[in-house]
């Protein structure tokens, strides 16, 4: 097995081995890599005090939203939108951009145990917390 360090060497090895270049590129996953680099549309949204990078079809776990399962929710706090390399950055938000998502499920995160203690004072405090989350699926990124 040979190690390929550049595309020029890859083309050279393809000629030596008499393998079509496109076939070898598919084998190495270069086409999949090219699809991931800037071809898809993506956006950066803010919800629940956090920012998320999303694409169409992504499933995202966000802080609990007050929307029933199966309904759609629109995120209008879009910080950045990239459409095939055309990047629009908001100040702080892009005015004409929205992200439409469908609420899939509401659930609770695993329990976190909080334990406080002060030595030699008889002070012990144990508490727990379960954060509520909503699972959403990104349906569409709109750029008007």
Which helices and strands occur, and which strands form pairs?
Layout (H helix, E strand, L loop, with lengths): L6 H11 L3 H8 L1 H7 L5 E6 L2 E6 L3 E5 L8 E4 L2 E6 L2 E4 L7 E12 L3 E7 L4 E7 L2 E12 L1
Antiparallel strand pairs: 1-2, 1-5, 3-10, 4-7, 5-6, 7-10, 8-9
Description:
- The chain has 144 residues and is of the alpha+beta class.
- It folds into 2 domains: 1-37, no CATH class; 39-143, no CATH class.
- 18% of the residues lie in helices and 48% in strands.
- It has 3 helices and 10 strands.
- The strands form 3 sheets. It has a 4-stranded antiparallel sheet with strand order 2-1-5-6, with no helix packed on it. The protein has a 4-stranded antiparallel sheet with strand order 3-10-7-4, with no helix packed on it.
State the distance separating the first and last CA atoms: 50 Å
Task: Kindly report the spatial arrangement of strands forming the biggest sheet.
Answer: 2-1-5-6
Mean pLDDT: 81
Cα-based radius of gyration, to the nearest Å: 24 Å
* Helical coverage, percent range: 10-25%
Name the beta content range: over 45%
Order of helices and strands: HHHEEEEEEEEEE
Number of domains: 2
Report low-confidence residues grouped into runs of 5 or more. 1-10, 21-35
Briefly characterize the structure.
The protein is of the alpha+beta class.
Summary keywords:
144 residues; alpha+beta; single chain; 4-stranded antiparallel β-sheet; 3 helices; 2 domains
